[in-house]
Amino acid sequence: MPDAVPTPKTNRLHAIGRTLVLSLLATSLAATAYAEDSDVPSLAGKRIAISMTGTSHYFDIKAFQAQVDEVKRLGGTPITLDAGRNDKNLVNQLQT
Q1: Residue 54's closest CA among 87, 96, 91, 95?
Q2: What residues does each domain of the chain span?
Q3: What is the pLDDT of residue 59?
Q4: The domain at 41-96 falls in which architecture?
């Protein structure tokens, strides 16, 4: 099946496409990062539940803390929950 064998040109096009998509994504993220504070909704007076499946890994802890910090920055009160690596607990915590 000669059609199934990737050619160097095809691989190069995929690499260019990936690079273009990543560049557009980075640009859009940078643009939203500089949004004016007046455009950002306020969470003042609201309690926001944040549940993680677990915080045993470094990345999990950093992502969890970033969510807590963002809720505080927007004026809300974070309610933090740890599901202990149990997806069922995670769903139950967020439904209550």
Answers
A1: 87
A2: 7-36, 41-96
A3: 87
A4: 3-Layer(aba) Sandwich (3.40)
